[in-house]
Amino acid sequence: MLEWVRTNMGIIVQKFGGSSVADAERIRRVALRAIETQKQGNDVVVVVSAMGDTTDELITLMNELSSSPSDREVDMLLSTGEQVSIALLAMTIEELGYSAISLTGPQAGIMTEDVHLKAKIIEVKPDRVLEELKKGKIVVVAGFQGINSNGDITTLGRGGSDTTAVALAAALNSEVCEIFTDVDGVYTANPRLVPDAKKLSVISYDEMLEMASLGAQVLQSRAVEFAKHYGVKIHVRASFNNSEGTIVREERNMEKGTVVTGVTYDKNVAKFAILGVPDTPGIAHKIFSALGDARINVDVIVQGAKSNEVTDILFTVAQTDIKKSRTILEKICLEIGATGILCEEDVAKVSIVGAGMASNPGVAGRMFGALAKVGVNIEAVSTSEIKISCLIKQDSTEKAVKAIHEEFGLGK
Ligand code: ASP
Ligand code: MG
User: Fold this and answer.
1) What are phi and psi of 93, to 5 degrees?
2) Between 71-95 and 54-65, two packed helices, what is the crossing angle to 10 degrees?
3) 362-395 tens-digit pLDDT
4) Whose alpha carbon is nearest atom 4 of ligand 1?
5) 394 CB-near residues (< 8 Å, 6+ apart)
6) Lowest-pLDDT range, 33-47, 253-267, 329-343, 367-381?
7) Which DSSP letter does residue 160 get?
């Protein structure tokens, strides 16, 4: 490639997830895509995840051999998956007649905090990447890994390759960070549930964050936070075709008049009710700070009407936090003299997300009306500036999502 062509153009970071590099044929397709992007005159950095279910398989194997492996060794093990992918992809690009080099996270200058398993990136030193780009190479970087101040390999939490890609895009001042996945963008609702769901051409960082944390499994939340902080434009698009996907960016000249952008749901929730809580100041603080100290995320909090100076408090946690929550709550119940704890798992949270909601009254009423029309009972509600969530019975999820989607006219 001619030097003048490249230096006139920008750097593009492309990230391919596990399913996009699951076998030789797919790795070849990724290689061709990266080459094509370079031919168009861009400097190309490709971030890849481990092939297919490699990370899960490594975890299974690990559990067969050790009941409590040290975090350092877990990271050493899990980071190997991505190293297989980068070497294979770099070889494939070379085989096709183009120049490439693979770099581990540490080699690519991904510096993290000292924590293992879920380390945050604190700095990216992109010198080596830039040096290799200057030589005309396609630079292939291992996602999901970095190095801490002790010189040990760390990993960034499940799905962390997204964050690697966004962090590199920020450090390289890249025009766009393209995230290739097995869906072709972000939809107004899960298309498997709602057949007429529409692909969004644009979504704001905040809306995407809500969608991501509410269960739309398209991007790792931390990657979106990172992108928002550094103003990195993300393009979520399909690895299996060439169509335009969804751009995630700052909310500027968004389509006027859209109040609700999408409907999401989360079945990974459990409802706790603490019964017979003495209705005195400081009790709620006691309960929720204890859960907070244990890093348990609480959502949808409702305090019931009081009778005889006692009240019920209802809230939700992730199903994965049930055991931990119960232990903490049993202790607190004794302390404060509550009469009992109930836990229910067959609930789900359906939510609407939209940046236009804050300035449009009546949205909640329309959502509740849509649920009432299909006979879905609302057990609790929580809201933010750009989100309204309702807690419902889990087996009503599909019906609820469809009804709300229809009410706000989000379909094709
Ligand atoms: N391979 C890691 C995982 O499965 C990282 C990623 O896919 O982004 O979580
Ligand atoms: Mg993944």
Assistant:
1) -60, -45
2) 140
3) 999 999 999 999 999 999 999 888 999 999 999 9
4) 55
5) 267, 345, 346, 347, 348
6) 253-267
7) T
Q: Whole-prediction pTM value? A: 0.85
Tokens of 141: 């970087």
Interatomic CA distance for residues 38 and 43, integer angstroms:
6
CA 394/CA 374 separation, integer angstroms: 14
164 lines ligand 1 (CB under 6 A): no
Half-sphere exposure of 220 (CA within 13 A, CB side): 23
Strands (E), 230-356: 234-238, 246-249, 262-266, 269-278, 299-303, 310-318, 340-344, 347-353
With tokens 């040990």, the residue in question is 152
Neighbours of 221 (CB within 10 A): 18
- One-letter amino acid at 14 equals Q
What number does the ligand 1 atom closest to the CA of 50 have? 1
Tell me the CA–centroid distance for residue 189 and ligand 1, in Å.
24
Q: What is the spatial distance between Cα 148 and Cα 117, in angstroms, rounded to a whole number?
A: 12
When computed from its CA atoms, the radius of gyration of the chain, rounded to whole angstroms, is 24
Q: What are phi and psi of 24, to 5 degrees?
A: -60, -45
Provide the terminal-to-terminal Cα distance of the chain, rounded to the nearest Å: 43
pLDDT band at 7 (very low <50, low <70, confident <90, very high): very low
Q: What is the 386 CA–ligand 1 centroid distance (Å)?
A: 29
Query: Which position has the token pair 């949205």?
Result: 363
* Separation between Cα atoms, residue 146 and residue 351, nearest integer Å: 35
Ligand closest in space to the Cα of 159: 1
Ligand 1 atom nearest the C-alpha of 158 is 9
